[in-house]
Design brief:
Layout: E1 2-4, H1 9-16, H2 19-30, E2 34-48, E3 56-69, E4 74-82, H3 89-102, E5 107-109, E6 115-117, E7 120-126, E8 137-140, E9 144-145, E10 152-153, H4 158-163, E11 165-171, H5 182-186, E12 202-204, H6 215-226, H7 228-336
Parallel strand pairs: 4-7, 7-11
Antiparallel strand pairs: 1-12, 2-3, 3-4, 5-6, 8-11, 9-10
Helix pairs in contact: 1-7
């Protein structure tokens, strides 16, 4: 049997637009029977940058459904399908969650006529799964615990329910023919190992290996494969994903170039610092040399001064001797007379 590939947003929306099918899928994922479903899709238009004149408008679909369960409680289920991992995914998920927590629409009126915040449950379909967990389906369930005793508290409180939420993560790339449970058998329609070699928009599924009570899911996806509009929009999604991946690749290359430039500038700065230090030490040595030369010049000056004083003393001595010789000569002439 050949079906449309529900990893595509347009096919996923087509699948869940059928209330019966949506109940089957959500009940299986949440592990609870869904009695009623008020389904809405929140649409976000994003312009993907391309060359001038070739921009693409992306219709981003985040699915929201209000569920009524067997115990009469209501929950708001947020469903996100993500084909490729990008660095901004987590931040985008957080912003989307924040907007849903803050939305005045996400309330219900209890039997007493009071408005109550709808508790949230999030379901993520990830084309590229988590790095550290190999399980195809991961459920994160909250538990109320008495901190003093460590005992679990069985009663749920509206305050806590409104401010925290459970999560289901389906790792499409971890399905890999794992069919251990009915849920994993249902999720075989997401296993990309069944993608048709001739057209990745389609999956080849053996109906006899599919749980009978979920075969309406197969029939819905068969109808999607026959819809020309659905096929055309899958082509657009392929182009969008390719564009986003190319942009992500370019950003990664730019990040690496910037890191390499930063490292080179750091090494250059270190080399300049070492050069400045060497020049400083050289200037210090020259200063010490100039100081030594100055002291030497001072000593030579003092020596020259001493020599001048010695020469002056010798000159005065010579004068005194000449005067003595003159007086002796005069005395001798006087005696000869």
């Amino acid at each position: 049997m050949r079906i449309a590939n529900p990893i595509y947003d347009v096919v996923f929306k087509y699948l869940l637009d059928d209330e019966k099918v949506a109940k089957l899928v959500l009940s299986a994922l949440l592990g609870r029977e869904i009695l009623s479903l008020d389904f809405r899709a929140t649409e976000v238009r994003t312009e993907v940058p391309r060359p001038v004149g070739a921009e693409i408008l992306v219709l981003r679909l985040d699915f929201a459904a209000t569920l009524r369960q067997e115990d009469g409680s209501r929950k708001l289920v947020l469903i996100e399908i993500q084909k490729a991992h990008t660095p901004w995914d987590v931040l985008r998920f957080r912003r989307y969650l924040g907007s849903q927590y803050a939305s005045a629409e996400n309330v219900y009126v209890d039997p007493a006529g009071r408005k109550q915040a709808l508790p949230l449950v999030t379901i993520y379909f990830l084309g590229e799964g988590l790095e550290c967990i190999d399980a195809p389906v991961v459920k994160v369930n909250r538990h109320y615990t008495d901190v003093a005793t460590g005992e679990e508290i069985a009663i749920a409180d509206p305050f806590v329910e409104a401010l925290t939420h459970d999560t289901v993560v389906v790792q499409v790339d971890k399905l890999k023919n794992r069919r251990r449970t009915e849920l994993e058998q249902l999720l075989a329609v997401f296993d990309q190992g069944h993608a048709s070699r001739s057209d990745p928009h389609l999956l080849d599924i053996l109906e006899e290996n599919f749980p009978e009570r979920y075969r309406e899911v197969l029939r819905r996806l068969m109808r999607a494969a026959a819809e020309k509009d659905v096929r055309d929009r899958m082509d657009v999604e392929d182009e969008v994903v390719a564009t986003l991946q190319e942009n992500a690749r370019k950003e990664e290359e730019l990040r690496k170039v910037i890191e390499e430039m930063g490292q080179a500038l750091g090494e250059m700065g270190q080399a300049l610092g070492e050069k400045d230090q060497a020049l400083g030490e050289k200037d210090k040595a020259l200063g010490e040399k100039d100081q030594a030369l100055g002291e030497k010049d001072k000593a030579l000056g003092e020596k020259d001064k001493a020599l001048e004083e010695k020469d002056k003393a010798l000159e005065e001595k010579d004068k005194a001797l000449q005067e003595k010789d003159r007086l002796i000569a005069e005395l001798k002439r006087h005696l000869d007379r």
